[in-house]
Model the fold of this input.
Amino acid sequence: MSDVEKLRIPAQWRQKFAGALIEQQAIGQSRADVFRIRCINKEDLFLKSEPVGLLSELPDEVERLHWLMQHKLPGPTVIEAITEHNRHWLLMSAVPGRDLASADDLSISQIIVIVARALRTLHLVPIAECPFDQRLEKRLIVVKNRMDAGLVDDADFDDERQGRTSEDVYAELLSTLPQTHDLVVTHGDACLPNFMAEAQQFTGFIDCGGLGVSDRYQDLALAARSIARNFGVEWLEIFCREYGMELDMQRMKFYCLLDEFF
Done:
């Protein structure tokens, strides 16, 4: 049985990808199944798929990728989106280069500068131009829905919260709500694997299903955490300098706590 037949991809794509090498991707934290399609004598493509359901995310990602293109912000190009076999399917172009969690041709300082400048560019887009609402009030509703649906994995909590229940962490989340909000257009999951670069140049955002208007710390907290985990906390000074502000540690902590539920 071929890779195409095993995946049961939509019928209209089967002939197109007959003979192609299809590789499942493991890096990143996308909740969809992600595959690289290595087409013969053509550029690689990416395929994402997830079950249809109330908390499905691929339709949101399709809308956001179209929005990125309209605003000339780099990311994958949507080739086609289909719902078949009770699953959503998204076919898109590959963004050139490598993700910044595995870009071994770049120095640490180069990686950090790319992340900071990419976020600064995104955060400068006027929020009136972004139709996607990811404000905290909406995110907290999604958190509760995910808990009720049993989609929060307590065993996957960060080390400092291992052994705690999602109900306990949720109570802490509600007790530490930030009092100030600095709204910008955010990526939503600004970890190193979701930034692409080639030849020392940023080439695009990936895994964009959470993009929308939110507090800038939705991005700054996750980017800083990713940098600290991969390279050490001493590199956050460069990140702050390149982005252009000092980090509010309380808001950092809150948005990392919020991320435990996604």
Notes: The first strand starts at residue 21 and ends at 24. The chain has nine helices and ten strands. The radius of gyration is 19 Å. Residues 98-259 form a domain with the Aminoglycoside 3'-phosphotransferase; Chain: A, domain 2 fold (CATH 3.90.1200.10).
